């Protein structure tokens, strides 16, 4: 489908926030879902060929937002899209996060993993939860959108590798200290962080949902390029990250089957 | 629409645009994203006798105007396909081609025999997957082996037309096409992916765990057009052309060099509406060129100097 870019805002050297108007898209979108975006400007631009997956930050009226980190040619091309121009993308994809009512929940984000957590934070808050956000980054530059979370969360704990803002630690340090107080955890970020968060949760018997980034060609369940393994019963089964995910039970993911992309 | 109606190996297609094996799942995946009843046909993911889990990840990587894949022919196996997928797929008004393969001639024959009696329109024998060690490519890189596997399968395929899908990873594709025709194939599909490789210069590791993968997408189109042209010079049976088609103009090129129908692969990942845009584009082209049917384009490349 097609939308109109309303804003393509530079947050800093590393991140951009894009707002897109599309009544058709917002109709079906849910928190924790993602969208495959055609980064080029023309209909049939062959390079970059594939669409790029991005988490849906939130939906407001007829618009939705994407937070993107500059990585390679697709995301760099996106920075050149001007407000007012058209952009092509898929409908909303994947399973998304499920909200819970009246619980004490933690959100754990690493870097751009913050993107899909804002919408679910709002929903959790509306559903009467106490919400704590643990947000880790390399440095101050990675700590984006934090202000937008404030109205929807009760606690904000920031960590950076260099201490430029918040505690100088990995995000798993403060989260690990507090884990026992939570009923449920939602996490998105680099694989190693998600694995550590899941292990911490498992050892304290706290349910954890992780949103995984696998390299994707189609995003629609057809190419079988995004397979991960999860434990089921005695053995393991294959899942397509794009359809059965991107959100999985962190205690069931076979972490060695998850690729390190990017 | 009749200007696009084609007859391929005795089967009527309402238009000559078919989605390529491995890029359209079992068809059902796309029902949410595009009107699959508008497609001429669907070639489903390569089916083997037993369920196959495929290669380790990472399996895909984008390259310039294309992508590498080494999925490793992951599929649910012929029995589950017939039971769980085919009945649902049959509800759509489109032709169903089943792409199949085996690790041995016996497995090819076994699957062929089962499919010959199933409610499908056509078989497409894959002897060209570059991503599995046994089977597939072993039969597509030696004309004697190609002859043997086509001949053995032909003996058990009694009710359905048989396409054989050729590999581009050979010095000369012509003897393979000829071997198929001589051993009873009803048509040729060409081409499968080109063997390729890409390395991450930071980690110094190949991007694909299988080390090599099959290259597809617009990057391979000129190679595919050349190969369809070569095949058309040596066989009389219909050719289903593919490789890098992303717009109707690409498809028209394949007709001109001898294709009677086309398959669209990687483009489905880019936008699942592309096959329909190609159908619409071809229809317009046919009427603008004042052709009564698109088949009048087949083989009309003008080689005069
Ligand atoms: C479900 C999901 C949600 C995502 N959400 C966001 C988000 O909200 N914000 C954000 O900035 N990024 C997100 N990503 C990562 C984002 O898709 C990549 O950063 C982006 O594709 C890079 O494209 P590029 O052309 O700039 O990079 P290149 O390196 O040039 O891309 C080459 C290929 O690798 C793929 N690729 C590269 N990095 C990644 C990665 N980390 N994950 C998956 N594929 C990758 C690209 O899609 C492309 O096919 C998400 C990924 C997934 C799978
Ligand atoms: C992810 C992927 C999976 C594929 N799987 C199969 C397969 O199972 N059987 C087969 O015959 N071809 C398979 N192919 C090859 C395509 O059907 C097609 O021949 C090739 O990709 C060239 O066309 P394209 O450039 O339009 O994609 C696959 C291609 C891709 C990209
Ligand atoms: S990205 Fe194609 S199956 Fe998941």
Number of strands of chain B: 14
Helical stretch count of chain A? 6
Approximately what portion of the residues of chain A adopt beta-strand conformation?
25-35%
Q: The biggest beta sheet of chain A, please?
A: 7 strands, antiparallel
Structural class of chain B: alpha/beta
* Count, helices of chain B: 9
Helix content of chain B: 25-40%
Q: What's the end-to-end separation of chain B, in Å?
A: 35 Å
**Structural Rg of chain A:** 18 Å
Could you spell the SSE succession of chain A in H and E letters?
Answer: EEHEEEEHEEHEHEEHEHEEEE
Protein chain pair with the most extensive contact, residues per chain: A-B, 32 and 35 residues
Distance between the termini of chain A: 27 Å
On the 0 to 100 scale, the average pLDDT of chain B is: 95
**What structural class do helix, strand and pairing data of chain A support?**
alpha/beta
List unreliable stretches of 5+ residues of chain A.
none
What kind of assembly state do the chains in view correspond to? Answer: heterodimer
Instruction: Give the SSE string of chain B.
Output: EEEEEEHEHEHHEHEEEHEHEHH
Q: What is the gyration radius of chain B calculated from CA atoms?
A: 18 Å
Structural descriptors:
A: 262 residues; alpha/beta; seven-stranded antiparallel beta sheet; 16 strands; B: 305 residues; eight-stranded parallel β-barrel; 30% helix; binds flavin-adenine dinucleotide; binds flavin mononucleotide; binds FE2/S2 (inorganic) cluster
Describe the structure.
The complex is a heterodimer of chains A (262) and B (305). Chain A has 262 residues and is an alpha/beta fold. Chain A contains 6 helices and 16 strands. In chain A, helix 3 links the parallel strand 8 and strand 9. The radius of gyration of chain A is 18 Å and the shape is globular. The model of chain A has no long low-confidence stretch (mean pLDDT 95). Helix content of chain B is 30%, strand content 20%. Chain B has 9 helices and 14 strands. In chain B, helix 4 packs parallel to helix 5 and helix 7 packs across helix 9. The longest helix of chain B has 15 residues. Classes of the chains: A alpha/beta (262), B alpha/beta (305). The complex binds flavin-adenine dinucleotide (FAD), flavin mononucleotide and FE2/S2 (inorganic) cluster. Flavin-adenine dinucleotide (FAD) binds next to strand 4, strand 6 and helix 2 of chain A. The site of flavin-adenine dinucleotide has 24 residues of chain A, from strand 4, strand 6 and helix 2.
């Amino acid at each position: 489908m097609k939308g109109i870019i309303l804003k393509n805002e530079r947050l800093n050297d590393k991140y951009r926030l894009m707002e897109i108007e599309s009544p058709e898209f917002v109709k079906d979108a849910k928190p924790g879902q993602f969208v495959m975006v055609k980064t080029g400007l023309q209909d049939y631009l062959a390079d970059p060929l594939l669409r790029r997956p991005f988490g849906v930050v939130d939906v407001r009226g007829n618009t939705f937002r994407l937070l993107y980190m500059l990585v390679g040619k697709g995301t760099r091309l996106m920075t050149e899209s001007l407000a007012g121009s058209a952009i092509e993308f898929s409908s909303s994809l994947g399973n998304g996060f499920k909200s819970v009512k009246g619980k004490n929940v933690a959100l754990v984000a690493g870097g751009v993993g913050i993107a899909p957590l804002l919408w679910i934070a709002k929903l959790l808050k509306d559903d009467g939860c106490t919400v704590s956000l643990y947000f880790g980054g390399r440095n101050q530059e990675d700590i984006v959108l934090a202000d937008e979370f404030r109205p929807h969360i009760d606690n904000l704990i920031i960590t950076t590798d260099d201490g430029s803002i918040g505690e100088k630690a990995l995000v798993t340090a403060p989260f690990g200290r507090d884990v026992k107080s939570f009923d449920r955890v939602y996490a998105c970020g680099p694989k190693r962080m998600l694995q550590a968060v899941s292990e911490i949760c498992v050892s304290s018997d706290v349910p954890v949902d992780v949103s995984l980034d696998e390299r994707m060609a189609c995003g629609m369940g057809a190419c079988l390029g995004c397979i991960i393994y999860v434990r089921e019963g005695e053995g393991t089964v294959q899942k397509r990250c794009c359809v059965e995910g991107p959100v999985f039970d962190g205690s069931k993911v076979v972490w060695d089957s998850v690729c390190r992309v990017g | 629409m009749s200007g696009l109606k084609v007859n391929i190996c005795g089967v009527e297609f309402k238009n000559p645009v078919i989605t390529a094996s491995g890029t359209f799942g079992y068809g059902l995946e796309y029902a949410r994203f595009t009107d699959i009843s508008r497609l001429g046909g669907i070639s489903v993911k390569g089916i083997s006798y037993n369920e196959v889990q495929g290669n380790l990840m990472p399996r895909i990587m984008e390259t310039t105007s294309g992508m590498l894949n080494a999925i490793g022919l992951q599929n649910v196996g012929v029995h589950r396909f017939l039971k769980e997928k085919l009945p649902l797929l049959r509800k759509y008004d489109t032709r169903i081609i089943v792409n199949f393969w085996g690790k041995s001639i016996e497995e090819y024959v076994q699957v062929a025999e089962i499919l010959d009696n199933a409610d499908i329109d056509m078989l497409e024998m894959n002897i060209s997957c570059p991503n599995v060690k046994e089977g597939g490519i072993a039969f597509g890189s030696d004309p004697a082996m190609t002859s043997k596997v086509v001949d053995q399968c032909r003996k058990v395929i009694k009710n359905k037309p048989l396409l054989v899908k050729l590999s581009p990873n050979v010095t000369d594709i012509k003897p393979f096409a000829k071997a198929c025709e001589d051993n009873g194939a009803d048509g040729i599909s060409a081409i499968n992916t080109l063997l390729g490789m890409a390395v991450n210069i930071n980690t110094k590791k190949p991007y694909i765990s299988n080390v090599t993968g099959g290259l597809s997408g617009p990057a391979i189109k000129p190679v595919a057009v050349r190969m369809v042209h070569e095949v058309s010079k040596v066989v009389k049976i219909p050719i289903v052309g593919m490789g890098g088609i992303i717009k109707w103009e690409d498809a028209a090129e394949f007709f001109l060099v001898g294709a009677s129908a086309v398959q669209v692969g990687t483009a489905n990942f880019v936008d699942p509406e592309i096959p329909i845009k190609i159908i619409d584009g071809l229809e317009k082209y046919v009427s603008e060129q004042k052709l009564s049917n698109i088949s009048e384009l087949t083989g009309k490349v003008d080689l005069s100097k």
